[in-house]
Each structure stands twice: as C-alpha cells, then as structure tokens.
C-alpha cells in the first residue's frame, strides 16, 4: 500500500484505518476513517497520492524532532569495537498529494500510540518521542505499518567497556526506505566516552530496489543544518 | 516657487535640502518596511519568532540609520560634530529623563540576559500572559484574557519574573481523595495506567503516584506528572477528569467531606409516624 497512487478513485485499508478519495464537483475529497472520520478537500485536477512512512515525531502533534529508542535490555559494548544490531522504531504514515512538480502533506496518522519523554534535565534537556525496543542480531519480523526496522552500527571508540541503554536521534536527518515487506532505516552510534555518543542516520537501504520515503522536512521545506546529534546526557 | 526652494533656512541649507532629506527618510522608511515585511513572510516558519523579531528590528533601524547618516551632509551636519553634540545632548537628556534612560538600560539588559522571549508564557509582577514584544523601553504582554499590557522595562527588570516555558519540561500535581473503604493500591494502578496512556505525560522523569496523607475525609493520593512545558496545561485539564471518571467506573469514589458523630446517650427515633415527631 505504500507508494504512488492516482488520486482518482483511491481506496486502501491500513490496519484499522480506511482511506479513500471521492470526486466532489471540481475537486477531490480525502477521507480517513476508523470510527472517527477525517476529511479534507483537495483542489487538484490531476495528481497522485504518495503514501509512505515518515519521521515518527508528528503524532498527536509535532512538538519535537528527536526520537529516543530505549533498549529493553542495556547493551554492553567492548572497547575499540564496532557491531551491527537491529532495533525497531514506530511508523507514522503520511499521505502526500503531488501535482505540478510540487508535494503537499494531506494527512499523517499512525497505528502506534505515541509517547514522549525527556532526555537530559528539564532545563537543558530535550523532549523526545519515546520508543522501547529489543536489540536483535538479525532483522526482526514486524508489521510494516506499525514498526520499522533500524540497523544500528554501534562503534565504541573508547578504551573502556561501555553500557548503552538508549539512543537519541535527530529525525530531521532520518532516511526511511520501504518495499512490500519492510520499512527500514539505518543509523550509527559512535560512543565517544562513557557518557557521550554521537548519532546520525545513514543513507543506506537494506536492498537495492527499496524505495526511499518522501521526507517531511523536505515537504515542509525546513532548512536542515545538523544531521548528527550528540548525546551528552548519558547513554 | 524656485525662490521658495532656494530660501535659506540656516547656513547653506535651503528648503530644497530639507525636502530632499524628508523624501529620502520617507523613502528609507518605506524600503525598511518593505524589506522587513517580506523577510518576515519568508522566514516566519523557518526561524524562532523572538530571533526573527530581533533581526527585523536591527534591519529596520539599520536602514533608517544608514539613510539618516547619508543625508546628514545635506543638512550641513558632519558626523564627527554630531557625535560630540550627541554626547552632550545625551548627558543633558539623561539627566532630564532619568526614567526613560532607566527603561532603556533595563531594556538592553533584558535583551542581553533574555529571561523572557517573544511568545513565552510569563508572570511579571502579577501580570500573566504571553510576551508579545520586548522593546527598548517596554515589554508588551497579552494576558490570557486577551488584554494588552505595557510594562516599562525598568519594572520588568526589577520584578520577579516567572517564565512558565523557559525549561523544556515542567511538573504539575493533583491530590485525589478516595474513601477509606476503597483499595488505594487499585486506585494508584488505575491512575498510573491513565498517565501511561497519555502521550504527553512524560515517560521520564517518571510520574509519581502515591498515598500522600490520611485526611479527615479521605485517603489522599498525590499524582505528580511531568509534561513538555508547551503542553502542560492541556494535559493537566484532560487528565484530572479522566482520573475521576475512571476511578468511579471502577467503584472508587471521591468522598464528600464527612464527620462521624457519636452521641453520648442512646439515640432513639421514630421514622414512621410523622405525628409522633422525632425523639432524641
């Protein structure tokens, strides 16, 4: 269901949501229903709907651009080493309308209940979207409409054994890829000291034919300056 | 007409020169307005509002000051002479208008120290609301009732300022009273589940729910929840009613004030016959 669709006569079911469009006079009307109904009129003659996973920081409303993945169990990393593990992240789904070489956001929804947390202290810390995940040595099987899989390359540059129990990312640099089976992203965590690490997303799909998701910050034209985040309030 | 234009007002400065200065200054003001209006439209969703307003003010007054300095020679004034005159004038004005100078200095310190920013929710000397603007001489507050209040910067600078959104997260507290006959542990569990369900009740710092005191009429459960500062009021409004209804749905009630009265002598009453009345 992720992908590009003609706006005319569009109809789809994603989890408990049913989304569709209807021609109403000179424009189209967009519906999203799951008991409640969301409607929006689209003033477009001929366009396409793009449905894809986006950066998971928009529900129920956008208050931050940071995502914290809390590991279910702390991960102990040996000195001067690098390891690749997999975790999950929450999926939020955006519906874009594309016409005349321009893209607009029609709707964002999610099958996951959002939760937020504070990373750091109330004075200098940051509010993050909270997500708890196990760490896997192989790609876990998940429902692509609910959870994505993120490959974490954890590099311990320090001379000590270091325990890491969470990772915080600036999702404005998040690259999400999808196909029929999986929603995927990739990131690195470079541990600099027992309390400091640097995280960044990596532009790397799992498979060659995966489609890159349209990013919200591109659609909203927000200037992105820093794509990495320095975790300085503990690992 | 030409004679009027050539009429000398003072020194070599003619009416024509003054008109040129007025036109240039008006033109500069229009240019400054146009530039700042277009910049505001272009950058309003790309910059923080307080930073944007500060930048626009610098640009607006920068254009006007540059235009003013440029037309000074037309008026027969030299910049070096003006600086000396300005220094002397400044001292005179300073003595003459101490409160204005105090507000000005306070304004500069406020802009430098930044205890408040445009858009913040604050309480300054009992005036609570949103900061609309921080000018050189005064600070503008829009109260929660929508009233416009101008506070001189000197007062802002010397008052206690409570900035409700200076920190990213803040805590609020409820006290929920339940009957002595109710299961407090069950009530705590219900409240914790409700907090967990709410997206903006922060996971960390962890919410606290505990029996705080054994009151006269109820067992008092303290509920402390951290939320993003921008969301605390809506979370506070939403959760209290949800807690009340969910507790009642589970048979836990919030008691009215009550008092147990013990009579020294045996109490006798006849509730059937109205005629007989009450006997005690």
Task: State the gist of this model.
The complex is a heterodimer of chains A (235) and B (280). By secondary structure, chain A is mainly beta.
Helix-strand layout with pairing:
The complex is a heterodimer of chains A (235) and B (280).
Chain A (H helix, E strand, L loop, with lengths): L2 E4 L4 E4 L2 E8 L2 E8 L1 E7 L5 E7 L11 E12 L3 E10 L1 E8 L2 E9 L5 E4 L6 E8 L13 E10 L5 E9 L5 E3 L4 E11 L2 E6 L9 E2 L3 H4 L8 E4 L4
Parallel strand pairs in A: 7-12, 13-16
Antiparallel strand pairs in A: 1-6, 2-3, 3-4, 4-5, 6-9, 7-14, 8-13, 9-10, 11-12, 15-16, 15-18, 16-17, 17-19
Chain B lengths: L1 H4 L2 E3 L2 E2 H29 L5 H23 L7 H18 L1 H16 L7 E4 L2 E8 L3 E6 L4 E5 H6 L2 E3 L5 E10 L5 H14 L10 E7 L4 E10 L3 H18 L31
Antiparallel strand pairs in B: 1-2, 3-4, 3-7, 4-5, 5-6, 8-10, 9-10
Helix pairs in contact in B: 2-3, 7-8
CATH topology of the largest domain in chain B: Helix Hairpins
**What is the C-alpha radius of gyration of chain A, as a whole number of Å?**
19 Å
How much beta of chain B, percentage-wise?
15-25%
Main beta sheet of chain B, described?
5 strands, antiparallel
């Amino acid at each position: 269901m992720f992908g590009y669709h003609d706006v005319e006569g569009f109809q789809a079911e994603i989890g408990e949501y049913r989304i569709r469009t209807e021609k109403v006079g000179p424009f189209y009307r967009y519906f999203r229903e799951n008991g409640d109904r969301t409607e929006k009129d689209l003033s477009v003659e001929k366009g396409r709907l793009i449905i894809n996973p986006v950066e998971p920081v928009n529900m129920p409303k956008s208050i931050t651009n940071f995502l914290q993945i809390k590991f279910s169990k702390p991960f102990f990393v040996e000195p001067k080493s690098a390891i690749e593990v997999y975790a999950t992240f929450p999926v939020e789904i955006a519906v874009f309308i594309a016409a005349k070489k321009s893209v607009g956001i029609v709707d964002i929804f999610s099958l996951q209940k959002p939760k937020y947390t504070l990373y750091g202290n109330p004075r200098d810390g940051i509010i993050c979207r909270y997500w708890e995940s196990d760490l896997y040595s192989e790609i876990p099987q998940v429902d692509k409409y609910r959870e994505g899989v993120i490959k974490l390359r954890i590099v311990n540059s320090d001379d000590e054994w270091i325990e890491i129990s969470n990772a915080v990312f600036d999702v404005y640099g998040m690259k999400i890829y999808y196909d029929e089976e999986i929603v995927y992203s990739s990131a690195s965590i470079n541990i600099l000291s027992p309390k400091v690490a640097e995280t960044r997303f990596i532009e790397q799909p799992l498979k060659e034919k995966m489609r890159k998701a349209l990013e919200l910050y591109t659609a909203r034209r927000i200037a992105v300056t820093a794509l990495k985040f320095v975790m300085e309030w503990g690992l | 007409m030409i004679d009027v234009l050539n009429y000398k007002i003072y020194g070599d400065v003619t009416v024509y020169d003054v008109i040129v200065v007025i036109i240039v200054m008006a033109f500069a003001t229009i240019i400054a307005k146009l530039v700042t209006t277009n910049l505001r439209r272009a950058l309003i969703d790309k910059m923080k509002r307080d930073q944007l307003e500060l930048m626009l003010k610098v640009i607006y007054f920068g254009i006007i000051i540059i235009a003013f300095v440029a037309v000074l020679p037309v008026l027969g004034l030299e910049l070096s002479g003006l600086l000396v005159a300005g220094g002397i004038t400044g001292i005179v004005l300073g003595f003459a208008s101490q409160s204005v100078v105090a507000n000005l200095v306070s304004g500069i310190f406020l802009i430098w120290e930044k205890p408040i920013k445009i858009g913040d929710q604050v309480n300054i000397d009992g005036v609570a609301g949103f900061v609309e603007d921080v000018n050189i001489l005064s600070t503008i507050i829009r109260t929660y009732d929508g009233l416009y209040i101008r506070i001189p910067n000197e007062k802002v600078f010397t008052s206690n300022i409570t900035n409700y959104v200076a920190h990213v997260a803040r805590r609020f507290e409820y006290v929920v009273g339940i009957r002595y006959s109710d299961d407090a542990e069950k009530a705590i569990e219900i409240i914790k589940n409700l907090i967990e369900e709410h997206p903006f009740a922060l996971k960390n710092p962890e919410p606290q729910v505990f029996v705080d005191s054994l009151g006269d009429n109820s067992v008092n459960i303290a509920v402390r929840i951290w939320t993003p500062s921008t969301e605390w009021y809506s979370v506070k409004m939403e959760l209290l009613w949800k807690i009340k209804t969910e507790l009642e749905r589970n048979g836990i009630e919030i008691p009215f004030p009550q008092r147990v009265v013990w009579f020294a002598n045996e109490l006798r009453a006849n509730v059937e016959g109205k005629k007989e009345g009450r006997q005690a």
